[in-house]
Design a protein that fits this description.
Penicillin-binding protein 2a (Domain 2); Beta-lactamase; 2 domains; five-stranded mixed beta sheet; five-stranded antiparallel beta sheet
Length: 578
């Protein structure tokens, strides 16, 4: 059967109107135009949104750590340096790691696998440290795992070559390289510098593929030269440790000053701690006892009592003092001498450390005049060394003094000092009456002090202090071969609960060569136990060892013959006790 051809009417019904195609074409053009306009708007005119999304996925602003300044001794010997280390961090949303990789990473960085897994995949955080300050070889093993989203960050870790020898002076830094104690804290602004930052693009594995821009360049920290002499520091540390252990003491401190400039050449305490150990030691070990802890100085205060009276014209070195056979009553309270005498010259009051003699000399002055003299020597206020936590000491208002308080203060009871404060005060006798400022920083220009006494008064007291070290004085064990020594012992009862108990602080402060003092060394031994607890027995030998070696190291000329040391007999060892 032959099919029938469509009729003309059917053909007209199937044909589409020509305007429909035109409308469709216009609509397509409008859509394409809208998409093009939207693209131009987002990519050119208002591109912040897409830029933010791109940055969130691939862009990072990373910190650039500033290199912390080096701390050195006065001769440039490194005391604290920053060494490069790597820290491991992760971007949890980008992390792709197999259980085996997580286990391997945990083993390398030394953390619990389950804990590490939880931190790595904690998508509530954009950034998290997995381990801080790894050595380069350990960080290399981490990089070798090739875990996506885990990266290395270049940082610095502080290292202290001297370890426990310099720890109390230098202090230490935290994991972010910020000073936490000591010089590191005091000079944080100079040592730390300022961290910088940089914008980078990273791929999905966390690797930097492009440095976009340096947002802020880091400012490196400044190097600091301390006044410390590293050789003297080691020497002082060794001797104070030995003295504490020898006498089974609770603790001990020592400070060595340049008598001419007031620079601290050595400062040490025992017990100590190792600042390279990131495990924070107890707070008791962290304290720099030389500046933070106060004690009653005992008879080391007597030279200042005599100096004040000499300056006021109340006495002369040869003035005779009735020492009452070692017992003197003031305000109903008795003052005792360990070695009773009927009378002594003012010079002998210092030599034999008479409490009665010192009390009588102090009571010859008006309270205000005595207080003013002590205050001018720096007692009751900070030294100005700017060490964190320095204690100011206590010097009570003279308006509240009773006669017994004025009397006991003459031999170091009722007044408290730190060891650096006491050592600094002795610069008045080393510099003909001029009190020098103390500093922990190397000085390139001469320092100017404050005039406290006349040169005649200072020299007269210095002569008396020489008598202390000779046989017949309280410190013949402080003698040094080839040098004249001037100094003073102290043996003070400790005050606990408002009462003096049978625990002692033994001390010695001295200078040499006495003809023209170059160094001042102050030693304090806290609670020596056993038969020996006097300053002349416990602290004076440590002084002699440190001062003698220091003078030889510094090539200070002798001012006495090499056979000048007179070995004391048991009868020559004069005891003292307050």
């Amino acid at each position: 059967m032959i099919p029938r051809a469509p009729s003309p009417q059917t053909k007209s019904q199937m044909a589409l109107p020509p305007w429909r195609s035109r409308v469709l074409f216009v609509m397509l053009l409008a859509v394409l135009g809208g998409l093009l306009a939207r693209g131009i708007y987002l990519q050119v005119i208002h591109n912040d949104f897409l830029q933010q999304k791109g940055d969130a996925r691939y862009g990072r602003v990373i910190d650039i750590h500033a290199h912390r300044g080096m701390i050195s001794d006065r001769y440039g010997e490194p005391l604290a340096i920053s060494t490069p280390v790597e820290s491991i961090w992760a971007s949890p949303s980008d992390v792709e790691a197999t259980p085996k990789q997580v286990q391997q990473l945990a083993q390398i960085i030394g953390v619990n696998t389950k804990e590490l897994h939880g931190r790595m995949f904690d998508t509530s955080r954009d950034f998290i440290y997995l381990k801080r300050q790894l050595p380069p070889e350990q960080a290399g093993k981490v990089a070798g795992l090739g875990i996506a989203g885990v990266s290395l960050k270049h940082e610095y870790r502080r290292y202290y070559p001297g370890g426990e020898v310099t720890s109390h002076l230098l202090g230490f830094t935290d994991v972010d390289d910020n000073g936490q104690e000591g010089i590191e804290l005091a000079l944080q602004g100079q040592l730390g510098g300022k961290a910088g930052s940089q914008r980078v693009i990273k791929d999905r594995r966390g690797h930097i593929v492009e440095d976009v821009a340096s947002v802020r360049a880091p400012k490196e920290g400044s190097d600091i030269a301390l006044s410390l002499d590293n050789k003297l520091q080691f020497l002082a540390f060794r001797e104070i440790k030995q003295a504490v252990e020898q006498h089974n003491a609770k603790a001990g401190s020592i400070v060595v000053l340049d008598a001419k400039t007031g620079e601290v050449l050595a400062l040490a305490n025992w017990p100590s701690y190792n600042p390279n150990n990131r495990e924070k030691p107890s707070s008791n070990l962290l304290r720099n006892l030389v500046v933070t802890d106060l004690f009653e100085p005992g008879s080391t205060m007597k030279p200042f009592t005599v100096a004040a009276a000499l300056e006021l014209g109340k006495v002369r070195p040869e003035t005779m003092i009735n020492t009452e056979h070692g017992v003197y009553t003031v305000g109903g309270r008795k003052i005792h001498d360990t070695h009773p005498e009927a009378e002594l010259t003012v010079a002998q009051v210092i030599q034999k450390s008479s409490n009665v003699g010192a009390a009588k000399i102090a009571l010859s002055m008006k309270p205000e005049a005595f207080w003013h003299s002590l205050n001018e020597n720096g007692f009751g206020k900070q030294t100005g060394c700017e060490f964190p936590g320095e204690a100011a000491g206590k010097l009570h208002d003279f308006n509240k003094w009773k006669p017994i308080e004025q009397a006991t203060m003459s031999y170091g009871n009722g007044i408290s000092v730190n060891l650096l404060q006491l050592a600094r005060a002795y610069t008045v006798f080393a510099n003909d009456g001029e009190l020098k400022p103390v500093t922990l920083l190397k000085q390139d220009v001469p320092t100017v002090g404050a005039r406290v006494y006349s040169a005649a008064t200072a020299r007269a007291v210095r002569d008396m202090l020489e008598m202390v070290v000779r046989p017949g004085g309280t410190a013949p064990l402080a003698q040094i071969t080839g040098y004249r020594v001037a100094g003073k012992t102290g043996t003070a009862h400790k005050l606990e609960g408002g009462h003096y108990v049978n625990k002692y602080v033994a001390s010695f402060v001295g200078m040499a060569p006495a003809s023209n003092p170059r160094l001042i060394v102050a030693v304090m031994i806290n609670e020596p136990s056993g038969a020996q607890y006097y300053g002349g027995q416990v602290a004076a030998p440590a002084f002699s060892n440190v001062m003698g070696a220091a003078l030889r190291l510094l090539n200070v000329p002798n001012d006495a013959p090499l056979d000048n040391v007179m070995q004391p007999t048991a009868a020559d060892l004069i005891a003292e006790e307050v």
